[in-house]
Specification:
The structure is a single chain. Strands 2, 4, 5, 6, 9, 10 and 11 form a seven-stranded mixed beta sheet that branches. Strands 1-3-8-7 form a four-stranded antiparallel beta sheet, with no helix packed on it. It is built from no helices and eleven strands. The chain has 120 residues and is mainly β.
Length: 120
Amino acid sequence: QVQLVDSGGGLVQPGGSLRLSCVASGNIWLVYDMAWYRQVLGNPRELVAQISRHGTIKYADTMKGRVTISRDFSNDTMWLQMNNLEPEDTAVYYCNADIWPNADTRREVWGQGTQVTVSS
């Protein structure tokens, strides 16, 4: 079994910052791409940022310039630093990863989600 545990959400005022964390654990041979998504109730889940096994980073336009994705390849941990948050950023944020438990099996795994609420 493999799992992702994401954390770090909370209530923050507009203009504030939060740092989300995601840790992969279980029977892991390789973690390839990792990403953060967010979902507002009633809307589709959307990409926020992605970081590949090789360190290639992609940011979606919605939060570009206000977020920084990073990753520790040695212990399969990923972070999302979010700055200058706006009420429109209120959503559940999900960690996502492309995990290979062995050389023959690939699984797409999601974290349980962490709520981010931006409000005064």
